[in-house]
């Protein structure tokens, strides 16, 4: 959901702000924009998704009250099921105050309104990722007739030809991102000032980006989204009693409860929104319990999907076997692999021979093509074998093998260095240490840290 003022909506009937450029830039990704406003003037891109939440002239508080009032645009925008919000708002907050603009105004009016926007975005979507744009600079002169603050006024109220009032607003957004970002709902600062030149990238009005300015904004948003979507995986640990730990270096672990003792932890993107969440396989009954919501800190998570999968004795693991962005489950049974592409009970969509009885299976993408293949750790030899993508029946090719870890290690697979391909890692019970390797070749670890207790179970993903 794109939230903002006319820099987002575009000039009425003329353009679509940065939205047209952003849509083209995000074409390789499966993006659905949401919002109760819709405008596509001037955007000739095929399949352009015109939905948005930008409004010309809006201050932050005006936007909040419109967005939550169904009588304005037909619904409460904060109740839409957005996964990511891109917010570029505040430029108009300086309007109407003219030379009453000072730090007190910023502290007492503007900052609470910015914080209210964050709170509203999270109200019905507690796991939303919020990308906050550092506002593009403006370049218009003071216009006392309309009460607009000129761009030659610094945010402490003085006149300064080099200053810019939006810088005071950007300091507020940076402060909010620093103190209000959480694991469950990250706030990522996107700096649109980088490479943005005034007046070169602005229309003659000194406020709205022109073609080059819009392209720069679109590129900044897209890069921030892509690095968020392709962020590094990390190891998670689950206590035998079902208490999960997500490591936050320098801070206490983020913990929550999910599943029963003896459940086998899974962690994946069960709904394709780019965020991994917990799952559990209960070997005694063959049931799988998945949730698409990361439980709040200290809270107990509840399964949103429950289904029967496999037989007692099967080894259950997860991955995205068809590259549609949704993780589903697979089974290893006596050297045969069964993969299913939907999260429900049913027969395998793909099955093939790979490995031996007793091998431990993991889903992962060693060649980074977006389709998960299968890793097998063989405790008897200490070797790990992998196949890049699921074959269509028959016997899977072994695309690589490596020696890493020792038989008592608990194996995991993930993209530890965020370069797009998955590689091996282990949790070693004897010294309660995570060892990660960035390449699928024999060699020593690239990263290691002591964490947790030896009887905890590892899983991996990007929460
Ligand atoms: Ca998800
Ligand atoms: Ca899939
Ligand atoms: Ca692959
Ligand atoms: Ca990698």
Structure description:
- The chain has 463 residues and is of the alpha+beta class.
- It folds into 2 domains: 2-229, Rossmann fold; 234-461, Tachylectin 2 (Tachylectin-2, Chain A, 5 Propeller).
- The protein has 7 helices and 26 strands.
- A hairpin with an 8-residue loop joins β14 (315-319) and β15 (328-333).
- The model has no long low-confidence stretch (mean pLDDT 92).
- The structure holds calcium ion (CA) (4 copies).
- One calcium ion is lined by residues 415-417, 419, 421, 423, 438.
Attribute tags:
26 strands; binds calcium ion; elongated; single chain; alpha+beta; Rossmann fold; 17% helix; six-stranded mixed β-sheet; four-stranded antiparallel β-sheet; 463 residues; 26% strand; 2 domains; Tachylectin-2, Chain A
CATH homology-level superfamily of the largest domain: SGNH hydrolase
What is the CATH topology assignment of the largest domain? Rossmann fold
- The CATH class assignment of the largest domain is Alpha Beta
CATH architecture of the largest domain: 3-Layer(aba) Sandwich
Q: List the domain count as a whole number.
A: 2
Q: How would you describe the shape?
A: elongated
Q: Describe the biggest sheet?
A: 6 strands, mixed
Approximate helicity band: 10-25%
**Class from secondary-structure proportions:** alpha+beta
- The strand count comes to 26
The amount of beta strand, in percent, is: 25-35%
